[in-house]
C-alpha cells in the first residue's frame, strides 16, 4: 500500500493518507450444470463397471486350482487301486471313483450326468446307483438304466511306472489295462480335464 503526504493549511504539519489499494481481479468459477454432473457420474460408473469386468475376466482366466484340490491334479497312491472287479475306491475331496474293471483301470467323475447328484456304490448289486432319480451304472461307469443322458464321465489319468515310462489315457477316456510286468509308481488324476462320455445307446 502506498502512502502520500498532504500539507494541512495553517497547521504547519503534514498528514499522511493512504493511497487506494490495487484491486485484485476475482475469477468466478461456475458450478457444473446438472447435465455435466450427470455426464461425470455416468462416465465414472461406466469406467468402474469396465474395470470390474476386466478384473473378473483376468481372475477367471488365471489357473487357481492347487494340486490336491478339486479342479487340480491328484496324486493317487497305487497301493489303493482296488482289485480287478472289486468295489471302487471313493476319493471324496476329488469327487471321483477309482475303478478297476476287467477291461482296465479307470477314474470316474463322481457326479451323475443327469442332474448332478452323487451316485453311490451298491455292493449288493455291484453297480453305481443314483439316489435322486434312480440312474444306474456299471463298474466302469457305463449306463444301465434311468433318466441319465449318458454314462458317467471320466477324468484324464496318467500312469507312471518304476522304469520311468508313462502311459496316458486317450482322448476318448478308454480304460487302461494295467501291465503285470511293470509296477506303478505314481497315478496322476487331473480333475480339471473331464472326459464326457457319448450319449447312451
At the first level of CATH, the class of the domain at 73-195 is: Mainly Beta
- Count of runs of 4 or more consecutive helical residues: 1
Q: Name the helix and strand elements from N-terminus to C-terminus, one letter apiece.
A: EEHEEEEEEEEEEE
Strand order of the largest sheet: 3-13-11-12
Amount of helix: 10-25%
N/C terminus separation: 104 Å
Q: Going by CATH, what is the homologous superfamily of the domain at 73-195? A: Rieske [2Fe-2S] iron-sulphur domain
Mean pLDDT reading: 82
Structural class: alpha+beta
- CATH-assigned fold name of the domain at 73-195: Rieske Iron-sulfur Protein
Percent strand equals: 25-35%
Annotated CATH architecture of the domain at 73-195: 3-layer Sandwich
Low-pLDDT ranges: none
Largest sheet: 4 strands, antiparallel
Shape: elongated
Number of β-strand runs: 13
Radius of gyration: 39 Å
Could you describe the 3D structure shown?
The chain is α+β, with helices and mostly antiparallel strands. It is 14% helix and 29% strand. A hairpin with a 4-residue loop joins β7 and β8. It has a domain of 123 residues: 3-layer Sandwich (Rieske Iron-sulfur Protein). The mean pLDDT is 82. The longest helix has 28 residues.
Brief write-up:
The protein has 201 residues and is of the alpha+beta class. The strands form four sheets. The chain has a four-stranded antiparallel β-sheet with strand order 3-13-11-12, with no helix packed on it. Strands 7-8-9-10 form a four-stranded antiparallel β-sheet, with no helix packed on it.
Amino acid at each position: 500500500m502506498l502512502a502520500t503526504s498532504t500539507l494541512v493549511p495553517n497547521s504547519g504539519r503534514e498528514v499522511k493518507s493512504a493511497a487506494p489499494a490495487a484491486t485484485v481481479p476475482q475469477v468466478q468459477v461456475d458450478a457444473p450444470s446438472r447435465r455435466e454432473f450427470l455426464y461425470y457420474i455416468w462416465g465414472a460408473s461406466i469406467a468402474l463397471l469396465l474395470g470390474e469386468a476386466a478384473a473378473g475376466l483376468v481372475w477367471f482366466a488365471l489357473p487357481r486350482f492347487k494340486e490336491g484340490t478339486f479342479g487340480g491334479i491328484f496324486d493317487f497312491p497305487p497301493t489303493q487301486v482296488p482289485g480287478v472287479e472289486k468295489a471302487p475306491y471313493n476319493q471324496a475331496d476329488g469327487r471321483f471313483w477309482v475303478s478297476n474293471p476287467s477291461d482296465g483301470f479307470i477314474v470316474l467323475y463322481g457326479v451323475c450326468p443327469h442332474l448332478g447328484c452323487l451316485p453311490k456304490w451298491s455292493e449288493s448289486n455291484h453297480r453305481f446307483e443314483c439316489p435322486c432319480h434312480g440312474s444306474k451304472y456299471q463298474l466302469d461307469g457305463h449306463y444301465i438304466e434311468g433318466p441319465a443322458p449318458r454314462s458317467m464321465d471320466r477324468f484324464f489319468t496318467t500312469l507312471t511306472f518304476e522304469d520311468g515310462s508313462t502311459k496316458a489315457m486317450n482322448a476318448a477316456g478308454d480304460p487302461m489295462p494295467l501291465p503285470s510286468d511293470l509296477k506303478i509308481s505314481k497315478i496322476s488324476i487331473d480333475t480339471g480335464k473331464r472326459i464326457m462320455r457319448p450319449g447312451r445307446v
